Amino acid sequence: MKEPNKISPREITPPAVYFNRRNFMKTGILAASAVATGWVYRKLNHVGTGAVDTPVLDGLQTATTDSDAASGFHVADAQTPFQDITHYNNFYEFSTDKEAVADESKHFSTQGWQVSVEGMVRNPKVYDLDDLLKISPPEERVYRMRCVEGWSMVIPWAGYSLSKLLAQVEPTSDAKYVAFESLLDPTRMSGQTDDVLQWPYVEGLRMDEAMHPLTLLASGIYGRALPPQDGAPIRLVVPWKYGFKGIKSIVKIKLVAEQPPTSWNIAAANEYGFYANVNPHVDHPRWSQATEQRIGESGRRPTLMFNGYGDQVASMYTGMDLRANY
């Protein structure tokens, strides 16, 4: 039962209403799930879930200091319950229905996962998942997440700064942007049989954005390995940008000289810009961005410029017209 005066996820308008697109049909049978090296199984309780066998991130660094708070690594906002984070998901590769994604993806397998890091780098490499996770111990980062649709969450991610991976491959001076690509496999991601977006999902960041310490390669939430519906086994989190910039289930990272294409910009360039910085002063053509609905709260709250991370990131956009560069 919903707590009094609180808004549940199902009361937020789903993207199918915004975009007038049909829900995906369930197709195929997905392979069995696998756990990557570096995770261990044990019993763990989280809000709204009970005790279950689940992969838990080993060696998670969770200490919070004044420095962490000042850097933006740990916001003081109340965290969104695990149940909501894992059962209210935008992941069109599985379904356009947020509340169906968890079920549609529950058998998604990450066994044998690899991530290619290539392009304008001195040391290109194809990483097995266990090698990728060993680059740095996972750190807990409690970030706000603001969806372009007008709702938000506060999520305790686990992972490490993308800059640590990029340092290993040594970008050349010609690299100005970082392009990302998700898995393309309709047999494992049934939503890719639909043409709601051009597949595979692609995203990109400017080099300074990619190197910013807040930019996270996430491998977990609430101390657990990422479940499929949240982007297993590895995803991007850029907390000062709208959530669609957080590409999930990454298989390729490429450093390039020119601004790369991005999926939602390809789909509707007048609505979804390359930068996608959270900005209450620049409305979506079809709704206001001035306020947001925090999952689990009653009423709406004002949206913060850069999602509240202005002290950390605003200097990267000095002199830019953020209305033109939305």
Average per-residue pLDDT, rounded, comes to: 86
Q: Estimate what percentage of residues fall within beta strands.
A: 15-25%
Question: Residue share in helices?
Answer: 10-25%
Low-confidence stretches: 1-5, 10-53
> What radius of gyration results from the CA coordinates?
19 Å
Order of helices and strands: HEEHHHEEHEEHEEHEEEEHEEH
Apparent shape: globular
What gap, in angstroms, lies between the N and C termini? Answer: 39 Å
Q: Tally the helices: what do you get?
A: 9
Quaternary structure type: single chain
Question: How are the elements arranged and paired?
Answer:
Layout: H1 15-19, E1 39-44, E2 52-57, H2 66-71, H3 82-87, H4 101-104, E3 114-119, E4 125-128, H5 129-133, E5 139-146, E6 151-161, H6 162-169, E7 177-182, E8 202-206, H7 207-211, E9 216-221, E10 224-225, E11 235-237, E12 250-256, H8 263-267, E13 291-294, E14 301-302, H9 310-313
Parallel strand pairs: 3-12, 6-13
Antiparallel strand pairs: 1-2, 3-4, 5-6, 6-9, 7-8, 7-12, 9-10, 9-11, 13-14
Summarize the structure.
By secondary structure, the chain is α+β, with helices and mostly antiparallel strands.
